[in-house]
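User: Mind token order:
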Amino acid sequence: MNKKVLIPLIVVILVLCGAATWLFLNLQEQKQVVQDMEELAELDKQEMENEYERFTMQYSEMKTQINNDSIIAQLTEEQMKTQKLLEELKQVKASDAREIARLKKELATVREVLRDYVYQIDSLNRLNENLKAENSRVNAELSERNAQVAGLNSEKASLSEKVAIAAQLDATNISLQILGKNGKNAKKLKDCRQMRVNFTITKNVTASNGNRTVYVRIQNPGGNTLSGGGTFAYENRNIECSAKKVIEYTGEETPVTVYWNTTQMLQAGDYRVSIFVDGNMIGTKTFSFNK
């Protein structure tokens, strides 16, 4: 085959292979995030089921603490309602947000009704000493359920943290140029009138859309921040920034350019550029300049 045809063909094949690899990795990452969110929904549903079961058991316990037939009948009726709601919840898919929300609202009502009955029974103070052993058994079962709920809460918190990490933005292709009076690239630091920082915020389908304030921090060879952009909060304290800019982030790849006007003599050496958004450092890179 003619070299003039073969070489471009090889280049095209390599580019296509690279693009296919990137698309595959990006798809896998998105699938993992979706899976984590589905697991969160399933854990939330399981937590609701445990609460309904716990309330059903509490009604059984309360019926052993009194001898009032009227209140026992009321407790039995409320217990049956709670059991019915539990069965409805078990039939609902975790992804059915509307039905889950309805049953969560019903759960809050059950909790309030149960609290009222607890108050009434405590006020009556008719505990029977012969039923203490049965009461202890029910309490042990409740403790076991509470331990299960605590374990689910811990796992839910871990998955929430994974989703939060996946939603953090990331800055790539960071560059730093020095510009002269005419706005063109300067060759020497002494001719610098302005510094230009370019970078790209990568695509992130998990992050929320909307306006973001981007803070750029440029540190000179001595470790001091080139001031001019005020301060911002980072890790429970306020730190200086060199420049800031408000951008609109739509979840897609977003190019950003920020300028810093020279207000001091610049020394030769390494300059560190750090970029912050939403209280997180999303990118950093060091650049060397000679006099």
